[in-house]
Amino acid sequence: MLIENWKILLALAATAVVGGTDTSSSTLSFLPSNLQARKPKAATAPVKDQLLIDTLEALRVMQDKYFQVNAGTWPSAIDWTAAVVGTHVAGALGSLSKGLLESPVTTTCEREDFLLRENLVTLYFSQLVAFYFGQDAFSLRNQAYDDMLWVVLGWLGSAQFIESHGKSLFDSDSAAGADTVRQDIDLALGNQSWHGSIWTPPFAHRARIFWELASKGWDTTLCGGGMIWNPRLAPYKNAITNELYIAASINMYLNFPGDSSSSPFMYDPPGAWSPSAETDEWPPRDPKYLKAALDGYKWLMNSNMTNSFGLFADGFHISKGLARDNSHATDIAAGKCDQRDEMVYTYNQGVLLSGQVGLFKATGELHYLHAGHQLIQNVIRATGYDLYRDAPIDDLARLNPWELPPWSGLGRGGVLEEACDVSGECSQDAQTFKGIWMHHFTEFCAPLGGATSTPDVETVKAAHAAACQQYLGWLRHNAMAALGTRDDEGKFGMWWTAGLLNGLTTASLMQMAGPHNDTLLPPQSRPHAKGGARDVVDYRNYGVPNDPMWIVQGANVPAADSEGEDEDEDEETFNNRATGQLPIDHQGGASRLRSRGENSANLADPNNRGRGRTVETQGGGLAVLRALWELSKQADGL
Ligand SMILES: *[C@@H]1O[C@H](CO)[C@@H](O)[C@H](O)[C@H]1NC(C)=O
Ligand SMILES: *[C@@H]1O[C@H](CO)[C@@H](O)[C@H](O)[C@H]1NC(C)=O
Ligand SMILES: *[C@@H]1O[C@H](CO)[C@@H](O)[C@H](O)[C@H]1NC(C)=O
Fold first, then answer.
1. Which of 293, 316, 418, 604 is buried most, with the most CB atoms less than 10 Å from its CB?
2. Domain boundaries in the chain?
3. Tell me, what DSSP letter sits at residue 449?
4. Does ligand 3 have an atom closer than 6 angstroms to the CB of 514?
5. Higher pLDDT, 169 or 195
6. End-to-end alpha-carbon separation of the chain, Å?
7. In sequence order, what are the residues at sequence separation of 6 or more whose Cβ sits closer than 8 angstroms to the Cβ of residue 461?
């Protein structure tokens, strides 16, 4: 496979030479033909400075308002959303390290400024370290497989930050110092570059433990492969668990630093901490991780999980041949993934992206990058954005203040949106989704490095970067919408679209909808309310229905609660998710728009409905700003 790709690339390179001047980027492109020659709009310097300020502010508000130092966590988060928020902090630290500390220090004044910046990085890093202990690893061990895989990605991301930050601070070989003081310092630091390195072994350990726990979800007896979502429910093979398995596995292959502790729980080194600890038992670059990622990718891409928009539907049930104990009978159709849940969520279009870029780095095969760019372009189109005109499809300036642009598949008006956003009914799960999309998009579009198995790597890097730059206008549009949802305290809202449409209020939404009017709701969330099509179940927002498709019959499941409107609903929803005892909401769309709004103190702001602003929505704001900051910085280098 690798050899074949080399040949294709060499052929491409040869055409470039024959073609004459400057053909390298037009020969290989990840863009549709009408976009290849278009110049993306670059941001001006003041805009970029403001972006840095806004990103820092989003991080500061997230940590000041939601992180609790003595608890070592964001207490209002649930286990999996906290793992994602930790991943956002690690990502932001990487951006800060690169963005704030990259220039060399020469004068005293700059030195002070540098120390201040390093102090800032260390502040947030210390909170990440606290979260290592604040994370409820014992509880997570018994949750669904996707919950475990967020943990893997989080600590791998944190270990990667430590490595890159250490390198940027101590790039030159800081070999043993000349004087004795320096020697003592080296000894205390264990000859490591940055002090944060002492956390790499425990972080790596937790990533490995959780990868191993989660990989038990890989199953070949049903549907010819794929990860199972939750061992306590009827078998459901969904996009998210499989995308996470791919992303986490390829990340383990590329970035896991090795582990020497055999403890199944906390890091328990076989002696005092030592930077050169043996990593033989669980070495880095273990081919088993690559194999897992490849198996997962092959299964997912052949699973028929994408819909007519080219977006991933949520997952597959198995309608035939399942006995009570989940083993399948001898029926020929038995054990087939045949019943697709058509629900579309943003995060299902995101996590795969970091898997695809990792698979490219590991194999040098271009099709992973092609598929990733295609997915991004499908997402952008489904938000109602025209990449060629670099503007929303609908003319937003002509909308009346009380009008919404039409639903386009995964958003409206060029902005990413969950189906639950318009009614303000997003669960704690859904509140985390857009930030996840942005995080993995940022990973995908980061400058490609280290893909040494590709002969003409410079051509690929340039084509990849050029394609990513074409997304900048859309990304800016989304970031501006998100910024528009901030309240007086700087807290981001969940429904970014509302930040774009000035003058939109909960009252005007209710007026638009009228009694029992569902037209504002995306089609996916309508059948549910009307007891319509069975193939769309928004279980992430309304819970898992108590029916044989989801719950193993005969299992001890109490009757579903149809109310579930009380304050503790979200905690209940989460706690019950593992056992599948979830309430399901049968209210009509319009009454849903209204009922959530009435309870909130400030009726004017649609982002005050439902759960309102949370650490999860703050993570989303941080992630979209960081994505824009990273891509804007790249624009300078082109
Ligand atoms: C640090 O480096 C010195 C000199 O190379 C070496 O003697 C010492 O053992 C190293 N210390 C550790 C903890 O590895
Ligand atoms: C793919 O899934 C769709 C939607 O469930 C279904 O209509 C179609 O028949 C499936 N195609 C194949 C080849 O299984
Ligand atoms: C529902 O709302 C839409 C959008 O405001 C409006 O065009 C339509 O007439 C309403 N339908 C009913 C039955 O009220």
1. 418
2. 19-38+344-522+582-638
3. -
4. yes
5. 195
6. 31
7. 447, 448, 451
Cα distances (angstroms) measured from residue 275 to each of 107, 138, 419? 33, 27, 48
Other Cβ atoms closer than 10 A to 10: 12
Instruction: Tell me what pLDDT residue 48 has.
Output: 74
Which helix or strand (DSSP H or E) is residue 415 part of? Answer: strand 415-416
Q: How distant is the alpha carbon of residue 223 from its chain centre?
A: 26
- Ligand 1 pocket (Cβ < 6 Å) reads 176, 186, 190-191, 275-276
Q: Is 519 in the pocket of ligand 3 (CB under 6 A)?
A: yes
d(CA 417, CA 413): 10
Residue 531 has pLDDT above 60, yes or no: no
- The pair of structure tokens assigned to 346 is 């943003």
User: How much distance in Å is there from the Cα of 76 to the middle of ligand 3?
Assistant: 37
Q: Where are the beta strands (DSSP E) in 325-412?
A: 339-341, 385-386, 391-392, 411-412
Choose one of 180, 187, 276 to mutate for the ligand 1 pocket test, by most ligand atoms within 8 angstroms of C-beta.
187
pLDDT in tens, 317-372: 998 765 445 555 455 567 899 999 999 999 999 999 999 999 999 999 999 999 99
The token duo for 19 is 């073609």
pLDDT class of 586 with cuts at 50, 70, 90 = very low
Ligand 3 atom nearest to 513, measured from its CA: 2
d(CA 123, CA 244): 29
Measured between alpha carbons, how far is 146 from 244 in angstroms, rounded to an integer?
7
The mean pLDDT of 453-467, rounded to a whole number, is 86
Which ligand has the minimum distance to the alpha carbon of residue 307?
Answer: 2
Task: Report residue 18's pLDDT band, with 50, 70 and 90 as the boundaries.
Answer: very low
User: Which residue owns the Cα nearest ligand 3 atom 2?
Assistant: 513
Each residue's pLDDT tens digit, 49-99: 788 899 999 999 999 999 999 999 999 999 999 999 999 999 999 999 988
Q: Whose CA is nearest to atom 13 of ligand 2?
A: 304
Ligand 3 pocket test target in 402, 510, 512 with most atoms within 8 Å of CB: 512
Give how far Cα 30 sits from Cα of 15, 354, 468, Å: 17, 16, 9
Under 8 Å between Cβ of 244 and 146: yes
The CA distance from 350 to 433, in Å, is 9
